[in-house]
Amino acid sequence: MAATPARLLTIAGSDSGGGAGIQxxxxxxxxxxxxxxxxxxxxxxxxxxxxxxxxxxPAEVVTAQIDAVFDDIGVDGVKIxxxxxxxxxxxxxxxLRRHGAPKVVLDPVMxxxxxxxxxxxxxxAAMLDELVPLVHLLTPNLPEAARLSGLxxxxxxxxxxxxxxxxxxxxxxxxxxxxxxxxxxxxLLWQPVADAVAGAWHPDSANPAxxxxxxxxPRQATESTHGTGCTxxxxxxxxxxxxxxxxxxxxxxxxxxxxxxxxxxxIGQGHGPVNHLWNLED
Length: 282
What we know:
alpha/beta; UDP-N-acetylmuramoyl-L-alanine:D-glutamate ligase; 10-stranded mixed beta sheet; 8 helices; globular
């Protein structure tokens, strides 16, 4: 009998265009050979150019989906994406707390690649107060890091301060540099020392309360960037739940996304998707 793969749950919105959200998460899980499950928080009508409609799933149905998965199949890791409303944020937080969810990665999706808002303003406070303290890794891009921390993020020093402020609630924080102007790109991972895995981190003597890891990689010259945040956080979650240290999972997730961007094929008339299954091709 084949060994049972890691069981990964995505809690996110559905993207009818297939490049982001639940669809991107499940493709990424498949590319990493883990078993993917889903809790749908919203149904969006979107393509590579825009989001034309959003219908939120009732919070009680979100709760029922979470309980159905945890009560029977079990979960080795969780990736969270679009949550939309305070009620859905609270339902997810309650579910994580109730089931003691392990290795939870939160990608705080606020705006689609098209510029359309995916998180209500009033849901931001609920996310910070009720959800962030329960997750183990937070993966904001620069605009999200600035909004959640209330700090500027123009320089690497500022980004480090924003990461440490967000980590004060408990999680490790990966501040992604893709929205910056630097070349090459720099992603910064900060982990409070209480959660550090022995041998996996390079402690910064100037910051004894935690450890930094710095990832440098080239900027890909492509318009196929739809769903990159979803894809990266899902890859990290899959690798982490499969036994890699968090630092190795982040490094491997970035490498996987780089390959998916390089192998992307033209789909749609706007920001197309990455090629999630590039690593399975002959």
